[in-house]
Amino acid sequence: MLIVMNHTATQADIEAVNQAVAEMGFSAAPIPGSERTAIGVLGNQGYVDDSKILELPGVQRVIHVSKPYKLVSRDFHPEDTIVDVAGVRVGQGCRPVVVAGPCAVESEEQIVRTALFVKKAGADMLRGGAFKPRTGPHTFQGLREEGLELLALAGRESGLPVVTEVMSPDSVGLVADYADLLQVGARNMQNFDLLRELGRIRKPVLLKRGMSATVEEFLAAAEYILAEGNEQVILCERGIRTFETATRNTLDLAVAPLIRELSHLPVMIDPSHATGKRSLVPPMTLAALVAGAHGVLVEVHPEPEKALSDGPQSLTFQGFERLMADVRRMTDFLGFARE
Amino acid sequence: MLIVMNHTATQADIEAVNQAVAEMGFSAAPIPGSERTAIGVLGNQGYVDDSKILELPGVQRVIHVSKPYKLVSRDFHPEDTIVDVAGVRVGQGCRPVVVAGPCAVESEEQIVRTALFVKKAGADMLRGGAFKPRTGPHTFQGLREEGLELLALAGRESGLPVVTEVMSPDSVGLVADYADLLQVGARNMQNFDLLRELGRIRKPVLLKRGMSATVEEFLAAAEYILAEGNEQVILCERGIRTFETATRNTLDLAVAPLIRELSHLPVMIDPSHATGKRSLVPPMTLAALVAGAHGVLVEVHPEPEKALSDGPQSLTFQGFERLMADVRRMTDFLGFARE
Amino acid sequence: MLIVMNHTATQADIEAVNQAVAEMGFSAAPIPGSERTAIGVLGNQGYVDDSKILELPGVQRVIHVSKPYKLVSRDFHPEDTIVDVAGVRVGQGCRPVVVAGPCAVESEEQIVRTALFVKKAGADMLRGGAFKPRTGPHTFQGLREEGLELLALAGRESGLPVVTEVMSPDSVGLVADYADLLQVGARNMQNFDLLRELGRIRKPVLLKRGMSATVEEFLAAAEYILAEGNEQVILCERGIRTFETATRNTLDLAVAPLIRELSHLPVMIDPSHATGKRSLVPPMTLAALVAGAHGVLVEVHPEPEKALSDGPQSLTFQGFERLMADVRRMTDFLGFARE
Amino acid sequence: MLIVMNHTATQADIEAVNQAVAEMGFSAAPIPGSERTAIGVLGNQGYVDDSKILELPGVQRVIHVSKPYKLVSRDFHPEDTIVDVAGVRVGQGCRPVVVAGPCAVESEEQIVRTALFVKKAGADMLRGGAFKPRTGPHTFQGLREEGLELLALAGRESGLPVVTEVMSPDSVGLVADYADLLQVGARNMQNFDLLRELGRIRKPVLLKRGMSATVEEFLAAAEYILAEGNEQVILCERGIRTFETATRNTLDLAVAPLIRELSHLPVMIDPSHATGKRSLVPPMTLAALVAGAHGVLVEVHPEPEKALSDGPQSLTFQGFERLMADVRRMTDFLGFARE
């Protein structure tokens, strides 16, 4: 931690800061400069709350050198974590995975048919929402428990592990009974009670980045899960909110290689939610693989024009089949052995 | 709803859209233009899901004329809603209220002392967090139930109604036992299970705007609460996330008069979280009153330099006293009768 | 400047950094920590280019303590600068000024009529665009030199100093022949050739904040003008670009008091461009005065419904007259003596 | 164009709008709805200024169906434009190009050495800045005309066409004497005088997207160049400004395929400025090619640790050589014939 003093800070101000640092159990190392003095703080183990320092007279600002996460950081855990989703391995060195399926589970026919199709086309997992977070209360909110049952059924029939969203701490147990991978949606990335609850289960978690979360906050949110004992976490970039409205969100693809540097956890990309536009999904899926993503989530629907949500960004069966052929060729090209 | 066709859409495409609109139970009114055709949709009662239409060949985009909220809209509810918080009235025509207190309840001494002081200085309600959402898991998370008890105690001793945050659906009952006004924090603005639960209680709710929520999404989130039967909702702008880092967030003060146009619900401003900087709190508090806010939330701490969170944005007792003198003069100037 | 080393940096890495700092003519002060070492840089006079340091092995990042501006900073120039626009004084301690007029000069009748009206209503300066930056080339681009002549005429007839935008370095001379205050528009805030040219004239400059410029970049842009010798600069916040689309831009009003802390230059607010909505202009104008702005720019048009640009955000004569009555009462209330 | 009336608009309001539309020379087609009336506008040729309509009583908002650009739109120009830069062809169907070189021309030795190296490694053009836009005035601003001469020299010695930035209208002639492709930087994307001047020359232009420009504004800026008669324009995405600070900017890669849909102009990607971090440049370069970019701009410097600007994002010679091997394999894989 570095404390930057005002240009006008007095020697007494500087000494008061030194003393406050000492009272916190750390050492202070003043660095006099031509314009102002800065004071280095030594001996802290990780992130320090800076409120007390910021209050002192003459203090301009505090700069943190440590990060608000440690367990998810590659600094202290250099080996890559491989997440195992009912036998499908996700992470560095593994062939990238494709998670496919509709935005929402709508009926047995819809989800089973999709599951069998995406399995045949080469998908590794099945996705489908049972609990749907929607902007307004007057639209379809998901089939809820019935949706979970249908998703699990489709998983069994196709042999694919299933992924679905959990929206509140008290439904974690229920969702974990059906899902192989529990998803935290972007709106809930900082629902800390939910994260803590997911840290206590023995199933892997797919944590989506919040719409306006920095990478630092994203990793700190994952830290909540790891801190409770669950290290099986996959991070997923799904587009951030910016001023641009030509796409649904702005896909921040550069975070795939960046997160690989900062953390040992696997990282996936969701080009469907990120772009919101069917025609952009195939190029961004392939780009994600090339940028180093350990997997992608792709929305597929038997009849997108009848989908109850997110139709415009869902691929048709035919579109998905074409994309999977490209994914297979690209993954081979990138040097991954077929499983 | 208006459906805009591609420049290259055929007559058959247009007819297919007309038919799809008819199947949804609405009427289609094609508007041929020189560059492209647009198709108006008539007869819908409120927001229509556009997924099916967007799937059809030749459709470029769909423009919504209706909004994803109705109960919170002034269009259908022209009279202002006055929210009653244990006898303190908030809303149009009422003298603007000042909610003051520390970010977090830390001890009996701290919260009672603050309560008595802010009451004497002229505050209308006491705020204090018992459950604290924090970016990383390794920092102070609040005193939880003990914090609620201390807050309620401070409320009784000072005679001030108390406001505190609730973070999950299953703690709504607990928090409602202690609080006069239940706050939903920015990170939980779209925690829909929580909103629904708050819609079922008989206490007022203070809904904070999400860091990256549009005004439309903000009002749609409030709609979740009203849709369950609770109309006692106060909206609160607390700064949005932008590219600017000189302040903690960017205070979007213009939404105060804007929300007054769009909705009948009262709107408050939180200059402490919005700016994150003590010196900016007084000018922005006064500006908020002038811009038409029905109240403000201000962080006050007996010893900000020892605060466990948000010290740098908390006013000292002396600073708050000075601010309240200005608030009183300004409120008088604006023509509000003293209560 | 503080150099933060990686967790894995070796002693040799640290020594190489120390040496590089020494070669730049500064002293290095290593601060060993439990997680990583940081190295303070002493002796620099102002901002240092960090490229060379960032290249060295083991360096994680560089943190700047100095700012990219010095002449505009209050640190080195504590007294407030008062800008004199043809006799109208703008800055700390002066009665806040109101600059009013149409977005664009459209005709002699329009601009003279407006000038006489706003003068009578109490405005201090007349604004009007002759060169108009527009998103696309197929819309009205201003009357150009004819517009300058008409504006100057209206200024003479009303007795008001005139403000107008200059868009390129080679038209600075021309615009300076007519205008009392030369405006740099938001799109040109980092048109450095233009800024340098304006630094060489002897007339005051109104520098508008870029749509996505940080306060630091805004002040550094002003530094270009001061560095060439012209200290008569007024800074103007006119809304920044964010994800919110309910208003044209997001008025970042908190920068008014913030800039007053950071710089000695006066700061004005443009609520018309910031909100883009006529009904929001009066409340945000008054809020700006209360927040500490040294003036406001308000668009006024005799017939907004016939304006060639920005009609929806222009006040009518009647609306402006009402606003000026409120401005007068508020300015009196704030304790400014009438001129 | 669609005009949306307020819920409370009267029949007289609607008729007044109909009449105003008629006076503008268009036809009005009212679409009564259950909540409100909308009015379609027929017969307009392209974008219509909406100011007059927005002024009328009862009008809530106006929705544009046409775009502020036409010449750059694929709607009216379905065939792809191929830009020819001194014999190097850029655009659909051509092998993607790599433009490489330092941020700034610093010396003859530096630029010639770099030119020869990148040519040997397989680059198609040489980049190098002679006029450098920098945030503050106290840092290196480029060698200016001397830089142009050195760049041209390096181009001749290596046989590579050269690309460099032009910052003001009055230096367009000078820069065009030396450069094969004239670059407009992000800060100048809406420097309309500069764009118009570039529309009058007979050399190709590389237009960089502004830091906070929407795709629509980006295309409308290009329209300024085409409207003056120069159709040889390459669009370049170089990262947008968002709340995220972990990378220098946010690379909005999805605009590559999006712009290919909307426009016939070629699109390139600059991963160096977009990410600001050397380690992210190779993965994002390859991802750009896969996403459909017609070329990339990559910063390369013989000694990045001594670069006068942008060192941390510049590749070393060795790093560039490795990247070019990957680019060659990827381009082959994507099916482009070697030139």
Set down the secondary structure blueprint.
Four copies of one chain form a homotetramer.
Chain A: E1 2-5, H1 11-23, E2 27-32, E3 37-42, H2 51-54, E4 59-63, E5 83-85, E6 88-90, E7 97-101, H3 108-121, E8 125-127, H4 145-158, E9 162-165, H5 172-178, E10 181-184, H6 192-199, E11 205-208, H7 215-227, E12 233-237, H8 255-262, E13 267-269, H9 271-275, H10 281-291, E14 295-299, H11 317-333
Question: Explain this structure to me?
Answer:
The structure is a homotetramer of 339-residue chains. The first copy, chain A, is α/β, with parallel strands linked by helices and 339 residues long. Chain A folds into two domains: 2-63, 2-Layer Sandwich (Alpha-Beta Plaits), CATH 3.30.70.1140; 74-333, Aldolase class I (TIM Barrel), CATH 3.20.20.70. Helices cover 34% and strands 18% of the residues of chain A. Chain A is built from eleven helices and 14 strands. Chain A has an eight-stranded parallel barrel, surrounded by seven helices. The longest helix of chain A has 17 residues, at 317-333. Chains in contact: A-B, A-C, A-D, B-C, B-D, C-D.
- Under CATH at level 1, the class of the largest domain in chain A stands as Alpha Beta
Apparent shape of chain A: elongated
Number of structural units classed as domains of chain A: 2
In angstroms, what separates the terminal alpha carbons of chain A? 47 Å
Most extensive chain contact? Answer: A-B, 51 and 51 residues
Q: Mean pLDDT of chain A, as a whole number?
A: 91
Q: Compute the number of strand runs of chain A.
A: 14
Read across the widest sheet of chain A, the strand sequence of neighbours is 7-8-9-10-11-12-13-14
What kind of sheet is the major sheet of chain A?
8 strands, parallel, barrel
* CATH overall fold name of the largest domain in chain A: TIM Barrel
Into which percent range does the helicity of residues of chain A fall?
25-40%
